Amino acid sequence: MGIRPIAVILFSGKLSWVWREELVDVVPDSVSRIDAWKASGSKEPIMSYFDNRDTASDDDCCFIDAIRAALYHLGCPDLVTVEMWEAFEKTRPSDIQYGVTREDVTEFFKYLQRQSVPLDCDELQRNLLDGSYTNAAQLDKFIRRLGSGTYSASVGEDDLGHCFVVIVEGPNDDIKILGWYDEKRNPPVAAGLLLNYLWVNRVRWLCRIILKPGYVCRGKRKSRSQKKREKHERLQLQSS
Questions:
Q1: Residue 167 sits in which domain range?
Q2: What is the distance between the alpha carbons of residues 108 and 80, in angstroms, rounded to a whole number?
Q3: What integer is the mean pLDDT of 27-38?
Q4: Does any domain span residue 1?
Q5: What does pTM read for this prediction?
Q6: Residues 209 and 150: beta-carbon distance below 8 Å
Q7: Are residues 75 and 152 in the same domain?
Q8: How far apart are CA 101 and CA 116, in angstroms?
Q9: 20 to 30 A Cα–Cα from 53, which one of 43, 119, 156, 199?
Q10: Does residue 56 form part of some domain?
């Protein structure tokens, strides 16, 4: 007979315990998050583990949904596909299934670059934030200074992270948000206003999404010393 699992909880300032199955029906999301943290084998405390990840969707895919929503807005909905994301996931540590980190995001943009996806991936890898922003009004004010464009942002409410698209048009226009992408709907996106996202209390990163038509990856760049060595070898061959 297996050991019956229990959970320790804080109630009215006192520690107590309950059988785990009693919590499943009451707070299923919290139980699932605890299970995910345990399964990851992470040495981080549970709060900081999820604090560094964007997980605010049923399948923890809000990041790729945001990228696809942005590309739909830019008129290229199929430039990045779910299949490309799934192929990338296989190259990452298994805990990516519990949400993406900034490192995952950067590596995915490098992956797109190697696949010759016509995006400005150097720009995508830049975090445009210049300080700490703790609400939607602050983000609205900051992002207006960056000018018109399509941006991807990682924001959060306490320990829950989420990615969405930020659309800046004219200097006096309301800044819009595309918060999800569902290809089964027509259209697959719906716009909201950034200032209505009152739950935002932190912003982790922000990048600009720019198309780069005709881009082709030329492979890994050679170092200066490697170029000199190859030039020296060519000169030797010519003189022999």
A1: 62-208
A2: 11
A3: 57
A4: no
A5: 0.69
A6: yes
A7: yes
A8: 23
A9: 119
A10: no
Give the integer Cα–Cα distance in Å for 226 and 139: 44
109-126 tens-digit pLDDT: 999 999 999 999 999 999
Nearest Cα residue to 66 out of 153, 158, 128, 190: 153
CA 238 to chain centre: 51
- Structural domain total, the chain: 2
- 8 Å CB contact between 217 and 115: yes
Tokens of 137: 């009004």
| Residue 197 or 20, more confident | 197
User: Is 71 a member of any domain?
Assistant: yes
One-letter amino acid at 174 equals D
- Is residue 53 one of the residues assigned to a domain? no
12 and 87: one domain? no
Same domain, 36 and 68: no
Distances (CA, A) of 107 to 110, 114, 121, 221: 5, 11, 10, 17
**Do 119 and 173 fall within a single domain?**
yes
User: Degrees (nearest 5) of the Cα angle 66, 70, 74?
Assistant: 170
Structure tokens at 145: 């200074």
**158 CB neighbour count, 10 Å cutoff:** 11
- Residue 12 and residue 86 in one domain: no
